[in-house]
Amino acid sequence: MRRSHPLILGGGPAGSATAITLGRNGTQPLIIERQRLIGNALCGGFLSWRTLQQLDRLGINTEELGGHAIDHVRVFAGKLMASAQLPAAAIGLSRHRLDTIMLDHALAAGATLEIATVRNVEGASVVTDCGNIESDDIFLATGKYDVRGEARPKSGGNDPTLGLRVRIAPNSGLTALIGSSIELHMFDRGYAGLLLQEDGSANLCMAVRKSRLAEAGGKPGALLTELAAANPALADRLAWWGAGPEPDAIASVPYGWRALDTRSGLFRIGDQAAVIPSLAGEGMGIAIASGIAAAKAWNMGGGAAAPQYQRSFAARTKRPVAVARFLWERGEQPWSAGFAVRTLQFAPSLANLFAQATRIGDQ
Ligand SMILES: Cc1cc2nc3c(=O)[nH]c(=O)nc-3n(C[C@H](O)[C@H](O)[C@H](O)COP(=O)(O)OP(=O)(O)OC[C@H]3O[C@@H](n4cnc5c(N)ncnc54)[C@H](O)[C@@H]3O)c2cc1C
After folding, report:
1. Which tens digits make up the pLDDT trace of 18-48?
2. Domain span at residue 34?
3. Nearest CA residue ID for atom 53, ligand 1
4. Is residue 246 in a domain?
5. What's the maximum distance between 2 C-alpha atoms anywhere in the chain?
6. What is the pLDDT of residues 198-220, one digit of tens each?
7. Most informative mutation of 146, 284, 288, 290 for ligand 1 (most atoms within 8 A of CB)
């Protein structure tokens, strides 16, 4: 059996942030990533000002990311709309671009990348489809996907939340509609986030309860048609979608879950550490912050530092995750979503308050 020290499972933002931070301290980890096509993760592509600061800390020049500038949030509920300025500049960026750049930095810092799928983690043993690896220092960064042996508990009861994504090719009509906004279209048991990315394409990412999708016959395309019929602004935007392929989907997103503790030698990072409801647009900021914090903890105390890191990171994510969960639970109910949009029309500064409260703080 091979030995690796340390070993990073997953090459998304959390895994790469860990590798870059370890590399800067002279350690060369092995990253196991299952996808050859880097950065296909289902994600809204909103990089908040905090996420941009975290990237800056990693030595990634955020000017060169080339993202689409975003300075406003627009919230829709039925025929209602409220608009507010964001507290600071954000960008829309495809995951392909972000993950490729981050992984390139990780490799430049000395990490090695191996394309393989992790099947199972048992103590210090990691089973992959390309053989077994032994490591006393494992960083679990498989994001939205659980690994046998270290899976997160199921959440959402009988009505879990699913993720869906539609990509819309660049076109001037949609560019004029969305402009420099991140749009949140609230509907019964879900929301759709919409923004423009670096190449002018639009990314429409949704979180929706399983029961709502079931009402549309379990077909994402049919759900979008129903939502367009009930939400005029969403209909205007979806008109540019055309008959594309069926949306991408992921099952059961455990919104609100946080790892409160771990065992020695296992650092849980990214979505394997905390899952903030995605309408906050801070999942990637949390992923990068956790990678930096875990790598620093390992530099100081090795694998034995994992439990202390996990408890401290759980405390750091408590407020943003709780506030985002509060907003998500109100937003997925039509009456409270409508009330929230009306309130924002009169007091747009509230959006600023919530935007700040859902960001990951400094250590
Ligand atoms: C609907 C939706 C919209 C979202 N929108 C936003 C947004 O706009 N802004 C934002 O900041 N956050 C958003 N998020 C959250 C964000 O996508 C995640 O928080 C972030 O991707 C977490 O990063 P990560 O590195 O932990 O995991 P991931 O990005 O999921 O990366 C995990 C990596 O591990 C690899 N992997 C998985 N399983 C295995 C395995 N068994 N073996 C080997 N490799 C494996 C994957 O291929 C992937 O490359 C959204 C989430 C959802 C569900």
Report:
1. 999 999 999 999 999 999 888 778 999 999 9
2. 2-71+88-154+254-328
3. 163
4. no
5. 64
6. 999 999 999 999 999 999 999 99
7. 284
